[in-house]
Amino acid sequence: MPRQQTERIAFGLLTIAAVLVVVPIFYVVATIVVQGIGAISPEFLTTFPREGLKAGGIWPAILGTLYLTIGTGLISGPIGVAAAIYLSEYAQDSGLTRAIRVAIINLAGVPSVVYGLFGLGLFVLFLNFGTSIVAGSLTLAIMTLPVIISTAEEALRAVPQSFRLVSWSMGGTRWQTIWRIVLPQGLPGILTGVILGLERAAGETAPILFTVAAVFLPTLPESIFDQAMALPYHLFIVSTQVPGMPLQIQYGTALVLLVFVLGMNLIATFIRSYFRRRRQW
């Protein structure tokens, strides 16, 4: 079979595969937007639920999701980047290092419900944090660490070795080279990995089910040791546990969560593009 014909067949198969993946996604997103846009209003976004969650708004769930996302980022971001720096710049290529990398990759595939049970046992019960924002943030941080470490390490390894050699030849220490040369050049990939990890955390239900989420709270959380409502768990409740729930509220909640996650994706794309334009290679 001629090479050109083989390429056309392969290209056609790839196009069909892409269409089969993309079209259902667009259909789901379009359905959520069409069904949920009618629920979006200032009242829906800024008030508390009422009448057994069948009326009112989702403001506590929005704020709780924001708290959890920020808390997760503050914990997992520095730890993940520090671990990536060690693996990329300091660790020797040994059997132990390779085993650590394999373990990180495997941890990225662990089901989220397992992380939730781990957080329940360690943070809620053993450390006695109770069902609280801090317990939920710590659990989500552990869940997102493998993604952040892997992406940050790849971003650091992508920085040309010549940058390091020039810095060392001019008398720079290893840490000065990392801080002033390697990190700024690898920043687009690092930030992208952090935000992608936070996206996963913002959309998860199982970990927060065991560690922080409440069905309904009459007041907003006042400290990190309080429970909080969250959009993923609230969506689960209004979709499956409340008889007679208006369909518009279900889709409206899903639309807000979708916008929250996609907004983070757009932020990651913008940051990556901005820093790539300033990159020196």
CATH fold name, please? MetI-like fold
Q: Compute the separation of the termini in Å.
A: 41 Å
Number of domains: 1
Give the class from helix and strand content and strand pairing: mainly alpha
Proportion in helices: over 70%
Shape: globular
Approximately how much beta-strand content do the residues carry? under 5%
How do the SSEs run, as a string of H and E? Answer: HHEEHHHHHHHHH
Structure explained in plain terms:
- The chain has one domain (59-278): MetI-like (MetI-like fold, Orthogonal Bundle), CATH 1.10.3720.10.
- Helices cover 75% and strands 1% of the residues.
- The model has no long low-confidence stretch (mean pLDDT 90).
- Strand 1 (49-50) and strand 2 (55-56) form a beta hairpin.
- The longest helix has 34 residues, at 3-36.
- It has 281 residues and is mostly helical.
- The chain has a two-stranded antiparallel ribbon.
Task: For this entry, give a set of tags.
single chain, 2 strands, globular, two-stranded antiparallel sheet, 281 residues, mainly alpha, MetI-like fold, 11 helices
